[in-house]
Design a protein that fits this description.
138 residues; mainly alpha; 6 helices; globular
């Protein structure tokens, strides 16, 4: 699968192979491999983005829910679910993240605002317009 901006054979890789490379880089503090292609620099999309988000979430789920890497992986998963049209699952992920974010860095943090935006998008896509409007106004 590709899922990035690479053309031809350059972007083709198994999700598991990219996940293994991203996990290796993560050990040294570089988490870009979970979100972006090292060759073209574009964000992963489609099945590649979804697969990487699911693997990353599996790695960090056991961490403390306030852990920054767990928060980033959760936001990435929520966004990937939204992109794949899995809006109810994205909503649930966003609500879980927001509950934690409201306790720790505060509702005005960049992460909390990004999660609120993702939640609003997921609600709107499910025609929960009133709920989405409340989230967007918070």
């Amino acid at each position: 699968q590709s899922g990035c901006g690479c053309r031809g054979d350059a972007g083709l890789a198994h999700v598991g192979c990219r996940a293994e490379a991203a996990a290796h880089k993560s050990r040294s503090g570089d988490t870009e491999g979970w979100d972006h292609c090292a060759t073209c620099g574009r964000c992963f999309t489609g099945q590649m983005g979804m697969g990487l988000a699911e693997v990353r979430w599996g790695f960090v789920q056991a961490l403390d829910e306030e852990n920054a890497e767990r928060q980033a992986a959760g936001k990435n998963l929520a966004d990937s679910l939204r992109q794949m049209g899995r809006h109810a699952e994205s909503e649930a992920q966003c609500r879980e993240l927001r509950a934690v974010q409201h306790r720790m860095p505060g509702p005005d943090s960049v992460n909390a605002m990004t999660t609120a935006h993702l939640l609003g998008d997921a609600l709107f896509a499910q025609t929960k317009d009133v709920d989405a409007e409340v989230v967007y106004r918070e």
